[in-house]
Amino acid sequence: MNKPMHSILSAANTASSYKDSHIGHMLVEQGKLTLQQVETVRLMQKREGLRFGEAAKRLGLICEDDIQQVLSRQFDYPYLQDGSGNFPSTLIAAYRPFSVEVEELRSIRSQLMSRWFSASRKKLAVTSVNSGDGTSLLTANLAVVFAQLGVQTLVVDANLRAPRQHHIFNLPTESGLADVLAGRSDLNMIEMIDSFVDLSLLPAGSPAPNPQELLNRASFNAVNQTLCERFDVVLYDTPALLSTGDALAVAARAGGVLLVIRKDHTRISDLANVSDQLRHSGAEIVGSVMVSF
CA 240, CA 221: separation in Å to the nearest integer? Predict the structure, then answer.
């Protein structure tokens, strides 16, 4: 038997009331509202027939960013407010998740999920043609949007010559990938990024005089196997293809490559050249991303 319409509406109103109450409680926890202000908001909410957040905004007690932050916690979609987290502002997926740029990152994520990542394919190398094309920053931002999806994500800084990921995520780098490949350490130094529950980092580690030799060691295969057992998505940040052969070594181990192309900077002839090199290494070019700055 179908439920009477008034019962359905009553249930819906109860759910809405519970949600509003929860939002108010979370805003108090964050120090955005006092209990007295919550009661003031509820009075206006009842009088005007508004949602809790809208009523609080009209009273000038909170802003839209405060509401979005609370909603992100309700739906397990972590992001940060400006000034928190000690990350650079260029980590836009962390600070501006509703911007056009981050929407484009989510589109890239969706394409990678449908075209590449699966139970048997968890690794992807991110590289560019030339140095300074923003590979590290794209890798970091892409990792954040994967983690926001609830996917266990690992960033591996495989740029052993000029590592950047420990700077972006504000973590120490006493040991890391170089030390593991040299047999001086294990994978226990993988760091969880506390601000993003499902995101971790394996930094580059100690400066190495022989990066390409380390990345070509057979031990890299064992490392890959272990990482794929622990994580759903493993993103390798690599040096530019024209600057060193390191990226080819990583690409061959990862099997797939996301190629970063810089607008008005990357030469078509260079792009064709590195594409041939990648194919000869056995890596598949999964896609390309054009950046502009």
Answer: 22
